[in-house]
Design a protein that fits this description.
Layout (H helix, E strand, L loop, with lengths): L13 H7 L4 H24 L6 H13 L2 H8 L7 H14 L4 H13 L18 H8 L2 H15 L13 H24 L4 H25 L14 E2 L3 H6 L6 H6 L8 H8 L6 E2 L2 H10 L5
Parallel strand pairs: 1-2
Helix pairs in contact: 2-3, 3-10, 4-5, 4-6, 8-9, 10-14
């Protein structure tokens, strides 16, 4: 694998980079309140549409806001959206609950991904992955493999299995406890729904995240799929240009090369980092449809 492009390899103002890396509870809470308001509005829309066919687009819209919680979850693994550690951990725990993605286990997985990006032997996103064909590309986009993997993985971890190579032995008890807390709460919610004959867990969570999961799969696939498997962060990762609305809802997650280049830069400063790095980026898509067109162009048919 080729060597990675680092800070010393680019003409970047290190003082400015340090300045934009400042973490802020105020900036993080402002974005969190905005996201929460979107969730509340969409949830009320679902409740207002109950009993009509309009409930389906309302649930899809709510699901879009819910699956977008992956981005603050992702940011909290780096402890960057908030200055306060307790805020990072609390938001990560809640966001991970919505997506069946316990944050401590995900944090360890994600840190290994950053250390070994696009290395088939060591990147957790690639270890054991089947070759990406046109048929598998479509299958992954449905989100069904994600839910199967997350549910089976949660049950296994709650049962005491936390032996993945990226989980240090000292961290395994915490990862298991977290999985048990999640699984126990899911079972409790299911039981309450049955006891009180309430469809709310389905209407406000389960169905919406199922409907919207393909959007999150499309966003995440654009980050690395179809990029060269090299050690150069400027080419093994893709930045996808998107509008302001996307940036607001997804916490600027489309600036992904920038994030891999300097993971300590908070979400709100990624546009500034993009401006600094733009002349040096090697894998940039003008839109998500264009990113997926590039991915599909490199896929075998069988």
């Amino acid at each position: 694998m080729s060597s990675s492009t680092g800070l010393r390899d680019l003409p970047i103002d290190l003082a400015m980079l340090k300045a934009i890396s400042t973490r802020s509870d105020r900036r993080g809470l402002a974005r969190l309140v905005l996201h929460g308001a979107a969730l509340l509005a969409c949830g009320l829309l679902v409740l207002a549409a109950r009993g009509t066919w309009w409930v389906w687009p309302a649930m899809a819209l709510l699901g879009l806001c819910e699956i977008a919680l992956f981005t603050p979850l992702h940011e909290t693994t780096h402890r960057t959206p908030f200055r306060s550690l307790w805020l990072n951990k609390t938001v990560g725990f809640i966001a991970g609950f919505v997506l069946i993605l316990p944050p401590e286990g995900f944090r360890l997985f994600h840190m290994a991904h950053h250390r070994h990006t696009q290395d088939p032997a060591r990147d957790p996103e690639l270890i054991g992955a089947k070759p990406l064909t046109a048929a598998r590309y479509l299958w992954l986009l449905t989100g069904i493999p994600y839910w199967i993997g997350q549910m089976s993985g949660l049950v296994a971890t709650a049962g005491g299995r936390a032996d993945a190579p990226w989980i240090p032995a000292a961290s395994r008890p915490a990862v298991v406890r977290e999985a048990r807390a999640y699984l126990g709460t899911y079972l409790l919610l299911a039981l309450l729904g049955l006891v009180f004959h309430s469809p709310l867990p389905l209407l406000l969570w389960a169905i919406p995240v199922l409907l919207a999961q393909p959007v999150l799969r499309a966003v995440l696939m654009a980050e690395h799929k179809g990029c060269p498997e090299t050690g150069d962060r400027m080419e093994n990762t893709r930045t996808t240009l998107a509008g302001r609305a996307f940036g607001l809802l997804f916490w600027n997650a489309h600036f992904h090369i920038e994030h891999h280049f300097a993971p300590g830069v908070p979400f709100h400063a990624l546009p500034k980092l993009h401006a600094m790095l733009r002349p040096h980026l090697k894998s940039v898509a003008p839109s998500y449809p264009a990113a997926h067109q590039a991915i599909r162009a490199g896929l075998p048919r069988a």
